[in-house]
Amino acid sequence: MAQEHAARFFKAVLQDEALQAKLKATTEPETFIQIASERGYKFTIAELDAQISKLTPEEMAAVINPGISPRRRLMPR
Fold it and tell me: Per-residue pLDDT tens for 10-19?
């Protein structure tokens, strides 16, 4: 169920530019999870990781900070 929440959250994010900008500004997975939770999507960091691994590079860049600039990456390389 929570895995489905993560998948639905990513679909919602791809359609909301303001939410994309907010998520790209996050540097901690916990903050990402909190933003999702505030919108009714409940999932863990492990479920977030699993869903991120399913994203294309383009989808990932639209949702999270790809690490360009001095900001920390949500997903370390």
Answer: 889 888 989 8
Angle at CA of residue 37, ends 27 and 17, nearest 5°: 65
pTM here is 0.71
The residue among 6, 13, 29 whose CA lies nearest residue 61 is 13
26-38: pLDDT as tens digits:
888 899 899 999 9
The runs of H, that is alpha helices, within 1-77 are: 2-14, 17-24, 29-38, 45-52, 57-63
Work out the angle at residue 58's Cα, subtended by the Cα atoms of residues 54 and 60, and round it to the nearest 5 degrees: 50
Taking Cα atoms as reference points, which of 70, 50, 49, 73 lies closest to residue 61?
73
